[in-house]
C-alpha cells in the first residue's frame, strides 16, 4: 500500500522558474517550517564546457540578477560562464533606421547577462540541497489531479501527494494547467525559431544585436570568448517555409545565409553548432489562479522570443508570488486563501498582458509589407534614436529598473 505524502506547497517543474521559486520561499522567515515538494519530469541538466555551449540561453535583466543574488546562486553562475552585455543594436532590415541602447545612458555597468539555461538550473539544484524542507522528486510525471479540502496529485511512479497550494511551473505545455482545465487564449505566430551557437570572425563588442526583417527577427546574443574565438547564440525567428528551407541547408550554406541575413555585422560566420527548430506559439491563461492552484512562468504565459523577456517575466511572477506567500505567513492566512492568490494575479496578469501585446505589435509592425508602414517605421526609429530621455525610460523598463 502506497502512503499519501503531505506537503504545504507542491511545485511542479524544477526548471529555472520552479527551482528559483522553491529557494525563494524556503529562505523567507515565515516559511522556514513549510514542507515543499518540487516535482521534475526530466533528467538533470547536461554540462557544457569549452567551445560547446547550451543552445538554450537566457538574457537575464538586473531585476532577475537581484532575485538570484538574493537566494545565493548568482555568484556561482557568473564565476563559471556568463556574458555581460552593455549595448543593444536594433535595426530595420527593410530600411535604414536603427536604435542603439546603452547601459551608460542609464548609469549601469550592463543591460543584462546572456547565460546558458543549464548552468543556471545546475546552480539552483545545488542550492536546493541547502534547504532541508525542500524535497526534489525526480524523475516523476504528473498523471492525475483532484481537488477536495486539499489538492491531491498522482505521479507516474505510483506516489500520491496532497498539498494546500499547487503551483504549476511546468512550462508552456503545462500538465497542471491541462488537468486543472485552465482556459487559455492561443494562436500560432506563423514563425519557427532556429536556435544554435555560432562562431563569428569578429568580436561581438558586448552587444546584443537584432535585425528585424519582414520574414521575422534575427538576434545575435553574445557569449563568452573561448581561446580567442568569438561566439554568439542566435535566435532566427522565420516564417515556417523559410525556416524549413534553412534547416535543410548544410552547415557551410547555412553560415553563408546567416551572415548575409545579419549583414556581416560580425564578419563571416565561421561555424555553426547543431541547429534546433522550435515552432512559436502565443499562449496565455485567461486566469492564473483557481482554488488551491496557481500558474507561474510559461505555464501562465508564452510570448514571442524577440525581446528575450520570457524568463524575466517568469522570475517577476516568482518574486510576486513568494511575497504573497510570505505575507500569508506573517498574517496567519492559509496559503490557499483566495485573497492571496487574487493579489498575485492582479499584479502579474496585467503586466504580462502589456508585454505580450507590445511584442505582438512589434512582430506585426516589422512583418508588414506596406510601403507606408515601412516609411513610418523607419521615421519613428530615427526619431526614437535621437530622443535620449525616452530611450532611458525604455531601457529602465526593459531591465527592471524604476
Got a strand count? 20
> What class do helices, strands and sheet pairing give?
alpha+beta
Fraction of residues in β-strands: 25-35%
List segments where confidence is low: pLDDT < 50 over at least 5 consecutive residues: 370-377
Q: Which shape, going by the Cα principal axes?
A: globular
CATH topology: FAD/NAD(P)-binding domain
**Percentage of helical residues?**
25-40%
CATH architecture annotation name: 3-Layer(bba) Sandwich
CA gyration radius, whole angstroms: 22 Å
CATH top level?
Alpha Beta
Q: Sheet bearing the most strands, described?
A: 9 strands, mixed
Average the pLDDT over all residues and give the rounded result: 88
Query: CATH homologous superfamily, by name?
Result: FAD/NAD(P)-binding domain
The tally of structural domains comes to 1
Explain what the structure shows.
Helix 1 packs parallel to helix 4 and helix 1 runs parallel beside helix 8. Strands 5, 6, 12, 13, 14, 15, 16, 17 and 20 form a nine-stranded mixed sheet that branches. Strands 1, 2, 8, 9, 10, 11, 18 and 19 form an eight-stranded mixed sheet that branches. The protein has a three-stranded antiparallel sheet with strand order 3-7-4. With 402 residues, the protein is of the alpha+beta class. The chain has one domain: FAD/NAD(P)-binding domain. About 2% of the residues have low confidence. The chain has eleven helices and 20 strands. The N and C termini lie far apart (55 Å). The chain is globular. A hairpin with a 2-residue loop joins strand 13 and strand 14.
Amino acid at each position: 500500500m502506497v502512503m499519501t505524502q503531505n506537503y504545504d506547497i507542491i511545485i511542479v517543474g524544477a526548471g529555472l522558474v520552479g527551482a528559483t521559486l522553491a529557494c525563494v520561499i524556503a529562505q523567507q522567515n515565515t516559511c522556514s517550517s513549510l514542507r515543499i515538494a518540487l516535482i521534475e519530469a526530466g533528467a538533470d541538466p547536461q554540462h557544457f564546457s569549452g567551445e560547446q555551449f547550451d543552445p538554450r540561453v537566457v538574457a537575464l535583466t538586473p531585476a532577475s540578477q537581484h532575485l538570484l543574488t538574493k537566494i545565493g546562486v548568482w555568484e556561482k553562475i557568473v564565476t563559471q560562464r556568463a556574458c555581460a552585455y552593455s549595448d543593444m543594436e536594433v535595426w530595420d532590415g527593410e530600411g535604414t533606421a536603427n536604435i542603439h541602447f546603452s547601459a551608460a545612458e542609464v548609469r549601469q555597468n550592463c543591460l543584462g547577462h546572456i547565460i546558458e539555461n543549464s548552468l543556471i538550473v545546475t546552480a539552483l539544484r545545488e542550492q536546493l540541497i541547502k534547504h532541508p524542507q525542500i524535497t526534489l522528486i525526480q524523475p516523476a510525471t504528473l498523471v492525475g489531479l483532484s481537488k477536495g479540502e486539499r489538492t491531491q496529485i498522482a505521479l507516474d511512479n505510483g506516489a500520491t501527494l496532497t498539498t494546500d497550494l499547487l503551483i504549476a511551473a511546468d512550462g508552456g505545455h503545462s500538465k497542471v494547467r491541462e488537468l486543472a482545465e485552465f482556459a487559455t487564449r492561443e494562436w500560432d505566430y506563423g514563425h519557427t525559431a532556429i536556435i544554435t551557437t555560432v562562431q563569428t570572425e569578429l568580436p561581438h563588442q558586448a552587444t546584443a544585436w537584432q535585425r528585424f526583417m519582414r520574414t521575422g527577427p534575427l538576434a545575435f546574443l553574445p557569449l563568452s570568448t573561448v581561446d580567442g574565438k568569438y561566439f554568439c547564440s542566435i535566435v532566427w525567428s522565420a516564417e515556417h517555409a523559410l525556416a524549413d528551407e534553412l534547416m535543410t541547408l548544410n552547415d557551410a550554406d547555412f553560415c553563408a545565409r546567416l551572415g548575409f541575413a545579419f549583414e556581416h555585422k560580425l564578419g563571416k560566420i565561421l561555424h555553426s553548432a547543431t541547429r534546433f527548430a522550435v515552432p512559436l506559439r502565443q499562449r496565455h491563461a485567461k486566469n492564473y489562479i483557481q482554488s488551491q492552484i496557481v500558474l507561474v512562468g510559461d505555464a501562465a504565459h508564452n510570448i514571442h522570443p524577440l525581446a528575450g523577456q520570457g524568463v524575466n517575466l517568469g522570475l517577476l511572477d516568482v518574486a510576486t508570488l513568494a511575497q504573497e506567500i510570505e505575507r500569508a505567513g506573517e498574517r496567519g492566512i492559509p496559503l490557499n486563501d483566495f485573497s492571496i492568490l487574487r493579489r498575485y494575479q492582479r499584479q502579474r496578469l496585467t503586466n504580462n498582458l502589456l508585454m505580450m501585446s507590445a511584442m505582438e505589435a512589434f512582430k506585426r509592425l516589422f512583418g508588414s509589407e506596406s510601403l507606408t508602414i515601412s516609411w513610418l517605421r523607419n521615421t519613428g526609429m530615427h526619431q526614437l534614436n535621437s530622443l535620449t530621455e525616452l530611450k532611458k525610460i525604455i531601457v529602465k523598463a526593459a531591465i527592471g529598473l524604476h
